[in-house]
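Sanity check

After download, print the first record. It should look like this:
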Amino acid sequence: MAFKLIDAAEAKSGTAIIVEGAPCIVRSQEISKTGKHGHAKARIEAIGIIDGKKRVVVVPGMDRLEVPLIKKAKAQILSVNEGKASIMDLETFETLDVNVDPEVQDLKEGDNAEYWDVEGFKVIKRKA
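Expected structure tokens:
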């Protein structure tokens, strides 16, 4: 479910969009010139927020892209096991089992972390 829509030409570096059904962060964008009978094309390189996969898409510059709703929250780590963590949200005090981003290092019990809720998928993005 998209939070809002933007034109492909507006998808600058750092913008969150949905590519191939997966929420992604735009890493780079190139706009080609318009042709005699055509429209400008946007080539967008994006990295998946959840899976970390690189995705490249070429769309007309006026195409509408979906922007996912990303909720960022703080949590305390209760336990960590091989890419998964059990956390307690510091606002609602509910316990959740979430994935840990591979770039996050040295998570231990009792640490505070920031997790993202992206379209229903929860992932720890950084140590706080």
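If your output differs, re-run the checksum step. Summary of this record's structure: Residues 70-127 form a domain with the OB fold (Dihydrolipoamide Acetyltransferase, E2P) fold (CATH 2.40.50.140).
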